[in-house]
Structures are given as C-alpha cells and as structure tokens.
Design brief:
10 helices; single chain; alpha+beta; 202 residues; four-stranded mixed beta sheet
Length: 202
C-alpha cells in the first residue's frame, strides 16, 4: 500500500504515527505539496488532497477518517473515540480554512470575512477542547494532538486559548521519539516507508 502525504499535513502525520505503532512497516510513503496541485497527486486524487491511500488492489481511499477506518480495522467503535476524532478533524478544518484564506488573500484587498469567522471557531474549539492523552497511540489521540500542533503552528496567537492541562499534555506528547520523527522538518528527509521512518527514531 502507498500513502500520499506532505511534510506538514497534520492528518497524514496522525495516520503515519498510528501505522508506526501498529507495525505497518510495508506501508509506502509518497510526498506531494497539495497546495500546488501537482500532477503526480491529482493523478491519484483529483481533489489534490492528502492523505490519500492506495491499497494493494489499486483502490484509492480519500479522507482521513475513511483511511483510518480501513487501515486500522474500524478504530472508532466507541462514542468517546469517535467524538475526539470528530472534534479534531472539525478543529483542523477551521484552522486550515483561516490559514488558507489568509495565505491566498489577493494583495491590496479587504480581508475575506470568513477568515475572522474561522478564527473565532478555532478559539471556541480550543476553549472546549477534550483532554489529550500524550501516551496514547490511538488514531483519535494522534488526530487531537496534530490539531493542537497545527493551531500552534498556523495560529500562534490563538493557541493559548487551549487550557493549561492540554498545553502540558501536548508538550509531553511532542517529546515522544516517534512524534519527533514525524515533525515537518524531520519528514523533509522523505523516508520512503514506515520501515524507513522507524529506522530514524532514536
């Protein structure tokens, strides 16, 4: 199987971390920048989105939660884990919306009104965030942590809306060797598989 990712994609990194913990070492990794709509990605996913999973049978699976459902044997069996995964992906949607609208705002034009709306949603989401378990390897917890990371990365002024307990838990999570191995700067080395990534973990 092959997973298309980027070096910064929070949802793809959550998939990769879970694959590491489940010893899916044969999973191949391919890298693309979805913002530039590269032909090598759109040939596999017409929406130019990561993660994208291609199964051994050549079936293409889009959408993070659908990929996780297939790859990790239906991990969202309980209400709590389903709620955490749903929260994390909803928060990420607002983080990405606010960031992308601002990034591609035409120079000299008024700020798009949906930027402020998305930022306000990020603030409300962070204020009501579920507690992160920094030691967990469940995909829902990895998604939650990656949502916190993306909030800190893309909206540092908003990140302090996350409560102190969650900020401490996230700081502990970031010190994990497997998490350090999938930081954007670490993935710039572009390991070709989960097995190759595992070899980089100290």
């Amino acid at each position: 199987m092959k997973l298309y990712t980027s070096t910064t994609s929070p949802t793809a990194r959550a998939i990769i971390l879970t694959a590491l913990s489940q010893n899916k070492d044969d999973l191949q990794l391919a890298y693309a920048d979805p913002w530039t709509t590269p032909p090598e990605l759109t040939a596999e996913n017409p929406f130019s989105q990561v993660p994208t999973l291609i199964t051994d049978d050549g079936i293409h699976i889009y959408n993070t939660l659908t990929i996780a459902d297939y790859l990790f044997d239906h991990p969202f069996r309980g209400a709590r884990q389903s709620a955490i995964a749903g929260y994390a992906t909803a928060l990420l949607e607002q983080i990405i919306k606010a960031y992308s609208l601002a990034r591609f705002q035409p120079e000299g034009t008024a700020e798009h009104p949906h930027i402020a709306r998305a930022r306000a949603a990020v603030v409300r989401g962070l204020e009501r965030a579920p507690q992160l378990d920094p030691a967990s390897n469940h995909i829902a917890q990895h998604l939650l942590a990656m949502a916190y990371h993306y909030a800190e990365l893309r909206h540092p002024a908003l990140y302090p809306q996350l409560d102190a307990d969650n900020r401490r838990a996230f700081a502990a999570y970031q010190q994990r060797p497997d998490v350090r191995a999938v930081r954007p700067e670490a993935l710039e080395k572009r390991p070709a598989s989960i097995a190759a990534l595992r070899q980089t973990i100290q």
